[in-house]
Design a protein that fits this description.
Blueprint lengths: L1 H23 L9 E6 L4 E6 L12 H11 L5 E3 L2 H6 L14 E3 H9 L4 H12 L2 H15 L21 H11 L3 H7 L3 E6 L4 E6 L16 E9 L3 E10 L2 E10 L3 H16 E6 L2 E6 L7 H10 L15 H8 L11 H8 L9 H15 L22 H12 L19 H12 L1
Antiparallel strand pairs: 1-2, 1-9, 3-4, 5-6, 7-8, 8-9, 10-11
Helix pairs in contact: 1-9, 2-4, 2-5, 2-7, 4-5, 5-6, 13-14
Amino acid sequence: MHSKFLKFIFTFILSFTLCITSLFAKPPETSGDGIILINPQTNTILYEKNAHKRLYPASITKILTALIIAEEMPSDTLITRTSSCFANVPSDSSSIGLQLNDRYNMINALHGLLLGSDNYIAYDLAQTHSSNIATFANEMNERARQCGALNTHFTNPHGYHDPNHYTTAYDMAQIAKAAFSNPTVEKIAGKATSTFFLQNRGQALPITNTSRLLKSQTPYYNSNVVACKTGFHDDARQTLVAKAVYDDMELIAVSMKTSTPNQYLDVNRLFEYGHQNFSVQKTAKGYTLVNQTMSNWAKSTIDHALKLGWIVTDGTDYQGTITGEELIGILKNIKPLQNNLRANEITTIAHIDLNDMITRKNMAQIITYLNQKLIPSSETYIPTSAYSITDIQNLSSSDQNAIDYVTSNKLINLKDNNCFKPDANLTYEEALCVLYKYFI
């Protein structure tokens, strides 16, 4: 009774936390140094942070090892623990405690690999498959490239630290997309517990998944998770890759280089964000992603922007803030500016970096600059109302003139009490609406 009550409390707390996150956190707060959320059915990125930054994967490497073994090794293949395993795998590696000459089949090996995260089993599998680790690592790298992981290089089957053993959050999502599409790998990686049968001893060892996402007694349990793999070493810190299914929509999340329990918080927040803001529709040609992040008032503008090619149908969070890089990407797709705009023009005129959020003042500066660029005579524009706006009196005269231009032409509306709120960030959809008003 006590354990059931604790489970209820934990589940309630997690559900409440995720509910609050979905209502107020756009985009989700994440701590990992490399983060990504994708919908594998359309291979669309729904959220990313440093997704192409090179990082160490640690034991999440093992999902690629498992994929190769599941694809290429018969399930009844018998594997024998040899002395070379102990000689070549570092003694501080994770292990479920197998001994010299222990024998087990491939299916049991995958359980020990994915649930127990046993480095020695990874070595045994690679050695049995390819006769040596270097050959197996070459196959890993080739299979990773086939998955679309182009910034990955693995040197071993388990992820024990090697400076030349690296990947990215994006690449791990692509590897997970393939690995968790394999029914055997997905089924085993989704088990909370299992047993490991030793042929030579006639014993069944209990093993538990290292991931708290699958443990109902923890606050990080997620009933929608169907497969996951953890990783850790000092250089990689905590890493986690997981797949969840919400109705017809699949999601894959990766969190790399963080500290416990933030990897679980990251992944659960990503899954809730994806579930709340996106869905998929099955068509005769496959799946189509449905983006539910746009406001009703912005829908027609976004539809027009898509038709005009200013943006593409992807995982953009339209109600999230827009960066300088994202805005410049849109501007370069607008016909009058194609082949006629350099990124440094925008960053210089607005005094921003590419990763900075675009404020209402920045947008006023940019629109005024574009107006002067496209219609040089507009440089003689004389302000008419800037000095009646209550919260811009301390700004430079050029900023006041820019704000006057966008407000007088109803490109950006004033807020309550005749305020402009120059430092407030623009959302992606607000920026699109400003550009649409100006260019159409």
